[in-house]
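Weekly modeling sync, notes
Attendees: S.R. (lead), two postdocs, one rotation student

Agenda item 3: backlog of single-chain predictions. S.R. asked that every request posted to the team notebook include the full sequence so nobody has to chase files. The rotation student volunteered to paste the first one in as an example of the format we agreed on. Action items at the bottom.

Example entry:
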Amino acid sequence: MLLPRLRLSMPAVGRRPRSLVRTAAIAATTVLVAGPLAASAHAEPATPATPDLPTELVAAITRDLKISPQDYLQRADIAQKVATFATTAQRQFPGVFGGAWLDETGKAIVALAPGDNLDQARKAVQDAGFTAKDVAKSETTLRGEKNAFQQWLKDQPESVSKAIRGVAVDTLNNSIAVRVDKPDLPLPGFVDPARVIVMTAPPVGGEGQDVPKAAEIAGAGPRTMAAGEAYASVAGRMSLRCSLGFNGTDGNGNVVNITAGHCNPNISATPGANSPGVYQLVGDSLGPQVGAFQKSILGNQDYSIVGINDQFRDSFSNPVVNVPGAAPVNITGVAVPVVGAPVCKSGARTGFSCGVVNAVDQTVQVGDRLLTQSFSANICALPGDSGGPLVTGTLALGISSASSVADYPVCEIPNLIGLITGNTPQLFAQPVSTVLSDNPGLRVRTM
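Predicted structure, as returned to the notebook:
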């Protein structure tokens, strides 16, 4: 299935899903990860000489990130350590904390602005083994500017508001960044002209084709069903093709799968007796029904919880991510997105591919709906990858929601264009941590 056309903008109530988005969207400046991991004062855990990662994922890491599997795991670990530190720093030093990220060498950076308790904050950063960087504005100030921009936009004429694709806090440049369709738009004085990025409107594709309906295929049935594999969702005459997300359990211990909200073809019927069904795919045809949508959220967030039928409980009772026909990655926990952290996605259409997180907690408009808590990474995803998992290291990170290049037939084309123009593909994702916090008792299966 295709993702809907994407605009980055202000809050708006979403409507029924289409599929992965198709336009380059707002993000903080991309962190290019290349070369060996630089030494850091932070105490880094020892990583195995031969990480327990499947060959297909190792190939994607070395191809896309240009680092070793050991560095991939190490950077993912450092990102979560600085994320934990940042959560505390935001509370203790709100006037001076300016954000945290990994730089291009994998070193953890914590930004500090002038203000009360600056010396105390700097000591805390150094004691944690991270590198402090002096900046002009705190994260609180930057978020205030982002909110002010959103309020300003509400009062603008349509000729201006429709030309704004979005706004995000640009942590790396200590500013807010604004994407626009055309240059020379009137903008508030606090917007740095250097962070106004002109982006040509992308082509618009149509809806994905329905999955052929067929009687249940002989031989199809219970087998291991892992995150990253294809499934079809069916509601009446409409069917969509997506990728399974992370396996898990709900608050009552029932087996579930966490995938994208826009993969549900009839959210209004969910939950209930007429809730759309989720089916195995055998080739290009429907196999048996493995479950049904229990809950789907599409608007400010984009996720679904699929209840698995009793017959298939054992098939989904595993903590693995893979690509069809390949060895799996065993999920060991749940992560939060950090700018600069390495991330890899699995999808039934394009398999494993990797990039770095380049914006978190951002606002991105997808058709008539708005994702307000998404993160993005410079990864190509195509129709059919929707709903699939994103991991950092061996930790569950996100669910594929929208892509800037969903109109292309293969990833090689937009990847090449990105190398030439710098306008790299963007994958927008729903953080798994947010889904879990919104659904008490919901858990991702882990080793």
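Discussion: group reviewed the output briefly. Residues 69-92 form the longest helix (24 residues).
Action items: rotation student to repeat for the remaining queue; S.R. to check formatting next week.
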